[in-house]
Amino acid sequence: MRRVYMDANATTPLLPEVMEAMRPYWMERFGNASSIHLHGQQARAAVDRARETLAEFFNCHAAEVVFNSGGTEGDNTAICGLLRAGDHFVTTSIEHSAILEAAQRLADKGIETTFVAPLPSGLIDPEEIRRAIRPETRLVSVMLANNETGVLQPIEKIGEITRAGGAFFHIDAVQGAGKVNLDVRRFGCHLCSISAHKMHGPKGIGAMFVRRGTPIEPLLVGGSHERRRRAGTENVPGIVGLAKAAELAMQSLEDGTIPRLAGLRDRLEAGILKIPGTGVNGAAIPQVLGAPSLPSAAADSSGKGGNHQTSTGPVSEEGCNPVPRVANTTNIWFDHLEGEVLVIALDLKGVAVSGGSACHSGATEPSHVLMAMGLDKTRARASLRFSLLRTATEADVDYVLQVVPEAVEHLRALSPVAAGTLG
Ligand code: PLP
């Protein structure tokens, strides 16, 4: 049976070049980067080279790059490393649980959080961030791209507002990295977290941009690694793999990969939308709502500075503006279906996607992101995320477009609601 993996926002496989770059650092170049002898020097040189690559990736100084274990650690470090009792924290209700649960934990320590809700389009209105900031706000944290909808947030504007409010700004760029240009200077942030495994690098390794002078306390102590910002023997193979993945991602932002991917995603989306009772979550801003202008990152078509390669969502109704999204993601609801059941049916046909629900303590809960966008529980549960690998092909899309309509038709035929017997 053919297998098509369309769950890249969950994780991605290593590209062969990444595997090859890492290989010597498991074996003959196994040294500890803190050792003085030759083995240590080889490891240290590899870490230093990787730091230079990451500095290029973030557009920052090498000294501002901190290697860590990935997105969860970066998000936790930003929150737990900056906030103290009495501080106020502003974030959004559509963040990853690494942000949301860290905020919950700090509530017990007297740190209050304001969660800004998105517009129905999935966009955060920067003016809502402005309204949430108070004199005691120390940190604002907003994601670059949402993991479920792919919607890109107007982070430059949010950065401007945050700085004017006198707070620090953290960006969870885990789902944006490798899909749009990162430029922490343009974003105006103090902290920015990324993770290798979302961009064809290894799992358990990531990096954080920490702007010079940002008074962040380390999460882990016990050594002088990473200029005392993150203790622990460096994961040298992981760091080398992350750097290779970042290098390849930078190339793919320039070589036409992203428009190609956006074209595949758009064809997939248009094909699925031919099925009656379907629609895209995070696709359009109704103009009547007086929606904010598009994030400048997506509106800009002038090369490196902008995300011109990022396809926008379809104009689903008359009078709607498309919302900027990363090129590889679409999130689609299917009326009269249980998303989990469709995920299983597609898996049996060799297609891997994710549902709009998450398992919390053994119970399946509808996605907090889709619910925050105003979907009811039924529609949130009836939503699927298709996220394409950078290496996706036309044949992958053809296969998914063959399998999805058949599976939907089959499942709906079994559903009393779809058949109209329950109204
Ligand atoms: N932030 C976002 C937006 C994510 O999508 C994820 C992973 O899904 C994370 C953070 C956590 O990253 P990691 O898996 O590297 O801990």
Beta content? 15-25%
> Which molecules are bound in this entry?
pyridoxal-5'-phosphate
Please mark out the parts with pLDDT under 50 across 5 or more consecutive residues, or reply none: 287-318
Strand order across the biggest sheet? 2-8-7-6-5-3-4
Mean pLDDT figure = 90
Report the biggest beta sheet as strand number plus sense, adding barrel if it closes: 7 strands, mixed
Secondary-structure-derived class: alpha/beta
Number of strands: 17
Distance between the termini: 37 Å
Could you explain how this protein is built, in words?
There is one protein chain. The protein is built from 15 helices and 17 strands. It is 38% helix and 17% strand. The two termini are 37 Å apart. The protein has helices at residues 16-26, 38-58, 71-82, 97-107, 126-132, 155-164, 184-187, 225-228, 236-252, 257-273, 296-299, 339-348, 368-372, 377-381, 394-414; strands spanning 4-5, 65-68, 88-92, 112-116, 137-143, 168-172, 191-195, 206-210, 278-280, 284-286, 320-322, 329-334, 351-352, 354-355, 357-360, 363-366, 383-387. Pyridoxal-5'-phosphate binds next to helix 3.
Which properties best describe this structure?
423 residues; alpha/beta; 7-stranded mixed sheet; 15 helices; globular; binds pyridoxal-5'-phosphate
What does the secondary structure layout of this molecule look like, with pairings?
Layout lengths: L3 E2 L10 H11 L11 H21 L6 E4 L2 H12 L5 E5 L4 H11 L4 E5 L9 H7 L4 E7 L11 H10 L3 E5 L11 H4 L3 E5 L10 E5 L14 H4 L7 H17 L4 H17 L4 E3 L3 E3 L9 H4 L20 E3 L6 E6 L4 H10 L2 E2 L1 E2 L1 E4 L2 E4 L1 H5 L4 H5 L1 E5 L6 H21 L9
Parallel strand pairs: 1-13, 3-4, 3-5, 5-6, 6-7
Antiparallel strand pairs: 2-8, 7-8, 9-12, 10-11, 12-17, 14-17, 15-16
The structure holds pyridoxal-5'-phosphate.
